């Protein structure tokens, strides 16, 4: 079972949430990677008709063939308000419950969202990585920061910069298709994170981790 470190209470105000991000940010590690990535978890949250009703879905993929070997779904409510830069406080509680329901402990968490590509360098991938102390990366659909378009070939990339810092990469996962935005969450070097994303995108722009978790969440009623 995935263990979650008791590092903070869940806040009720924006000021409390920002203070938690500032306090936990120094715990993020931006180096290393698992000795071998055999399994990767995809994490996704689906918002239902009510903006506060959410379905958190986690799938675990076997990296040898990208098949789903474990999954979990948690339905609940997002108790924290919708505030840019603080999405983790809406989504992380339900995602953590889903992670704890898994029978397989994944080697890496692949979040549908940001890691260091965040105003306080502490997006969802950082938050979940620090709380679980599992390697984690963020793969966003939209950029948080500035980038020049990478080359058109699969594997081409350019730096993603925010306030003068490199916070990730714009990575082309399909030739001629718009890039995804990879950033470190925890215990994963940026180049290794991009290599992993390319392994997870043999056929589509988005990683299979994200695609399978998204599908599971949408199909759950």
UniProtKB/TrEMBL annotation:
Keywords: Cytoplasm, DNA damage, DNA repair, Endonuclease, Hydrolase, Magnesium, Metal-binding, Nuclease. The record marks 82 as: Interaction with target DNA. It is an enzyme of class 3 (hydrolase). DNA repair enzyme involved in the repair of deaminated bases. Selectively cleaves double-stranded DNA at the second phosphodiester bond 3' to a deoxyinosine leaving behind the intact lesion on the nicked DNA. This is Endonuclease V. Its cofactor is Mg(2+). It catalyses: Endonucleolytic cleavage at apurinic or apyrimidinic sites to products with a 5'-phosphate. Pfam families: Endonuclease_5.
């Amino acid at each position: 079972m995935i263990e979650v470190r008791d590092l903070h209470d869940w806040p009720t105000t924006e000021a409390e949430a920002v203070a938690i991000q500032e306090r936990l940010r120094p715990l993020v590690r931006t180096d290393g990677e698992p000795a071998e990535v055999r399994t990767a978890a995809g994490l996704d949250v689906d918002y239902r008709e009510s903006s506060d009703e959410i379905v958190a879905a986690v799938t675990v993929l076997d990296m040898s063939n990208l098949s789903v070997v474990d999954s979990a779904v948690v339905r609940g409510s997002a108790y924290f308000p919708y505030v840019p830069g603080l999405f983790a406080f809406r989504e992380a509680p339900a995602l953590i419950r889903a992670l704890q329901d898994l029978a397989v402990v994944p080697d890496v968490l692949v979040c549908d969202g940001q890691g260091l590509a965040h105003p306080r360098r502490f997006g969802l991938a950082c938050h979940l990585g620090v709380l679980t102390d599992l390697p984690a990366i963020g793969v966003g659909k939209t950029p948080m920061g500035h980038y020049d378009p990478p080359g058109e070939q699969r594997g081409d990339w350019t730096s993603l910069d925010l306030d003068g810092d490199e916070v990730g990469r714009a990575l082309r996962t399909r030739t001629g298709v718009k890039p995804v935005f990879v950033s470190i969450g925890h215990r994963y070097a940026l180049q290794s994170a991009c290599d992993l994303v390319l392994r997870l995108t043999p056929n589509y722009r988005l990683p299979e981790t994200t695609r399978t978790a998204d599908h599971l969440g949408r199909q759950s009623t």
